[in-house]
Amino acid sequence: MCAHYTYNRNDAKFRLREKIQVFGAVPRASIRPTDPGPVIVPEYDGFACRELHWGWSVPWDKSPLINAKSETLSTLATFRPFLENRCLLPADGFYEKGVLFRQPGGQPFCLAGLWREESGVKKYTMLTTLPNESVARYHHRMPFILKPEHYDAWFGGSWQHVLTDPDRAPLEKHQKQPELF
Fold first, then answer.
1. Quick one: which of 32, 39, 64, 161 has the fewest CB in 10 Å?
2. Are β-strands 121-129 and 46-54 bridged in parallel, bridged antiparallel, or unpaired?
3. In this predicted structure, what is the pLDDT of residue 179?
4. Domain boundaries, the chain
5. How confident is the model at residue 89, as a pLDDT?
6. Among candidates 149, 169, 178, which has minimal Cα distance to 161?
7. CA proximity to 87, closest of 105, 68, 64, 59
8. Could you tell me whether strands 61-65 and 93-96 are parallel, antiparallel, or unpaired per DSSP bridges?
9. DSSP assignment of 22-49, as one string?
10. Angle at 17 between CA 14 and CA 20, to 5 degrees
11. Is 139 in a helix, a strand, or coil?
12. How far apart are CA 126 and CA 146, in angstroms?
């Protein structure tokens, strides 16, 4: 379960649908459950980066629902009503067992997510998948990193195939930063 990630950049842009680029994600050295985080959502005839809170309320648990298994997403009643509310979560790293995982060179990437409105507040949950080789030693799940070529499909009408093809490229590992824990 991913419960801590980062987006510590103010220069990143994400290209979506040919010439549309999304700017405006607020840098965060630490994003944890219930914190606001940058989320890319479709808006009008383009895309926007908004601040949403991480974690949905669910009746069976006092803790927020922060992760959703990509493999069972469309089969669970918890998520089915929100499958049209797909979003991207800009990130440049995530933590598992105190280890920071990043793309080579610290390049930004996007995680798959869903959002919903709850009592007038928009909230999101992060999709997870089976780990790649870099993460498997540390945890049995990892955030679902979308391949850039799938960004458009994720927001399009035929998005289901995206869930079978996460980015499994090797990730760099960095030891935890004590000031964050």
1. 161
2. parallel
3. 52
4. 5-180
5. 94
6. 149
7. 68
8. unpaired
9. E--PPPEEEE-TTSEEEEEEEETTEEEE
10. 55
11. coil
12. 12
Q: What is the pLDDT of residue 8?
A: 87
Q: What is the dihedral of CA 97, 103, 108, 112, to 10 degrees?
A: -60
Report the alpha-carbon distance of residue 50 to residue 41 in Å, rounded: 7
CA–CA separation, 181 and 156 (whole Å): 38
Helix ranges, the chain (H): 133-136, 151-155
Residue 95, both tokens: 């933590």
The Cα 59–Cα 4 span in angstroms is: 23
The answer to whether residue 1 scores a pLDDT higher than 70 is: no
CA distance 7 to 5: 7
DSSP 10: S
CA dist., res. 173 & res. 26, Å (int): 24
Are 62 and 33 in contact by the 8 Å Cβ rule? The answer is: no
**Dihedral class, residue 106 (left if φ above 0, else alpha if ψ from -120 to 50, else beta):** left
Q: What pLDDT score was predicted for residue 21? A: 64
Question: What's domain 5-180's architecture?
Answer: Alpha-Beta Complex (3.90)
| Alpha-carbon span 174 to 97, nearest angstrom | 11
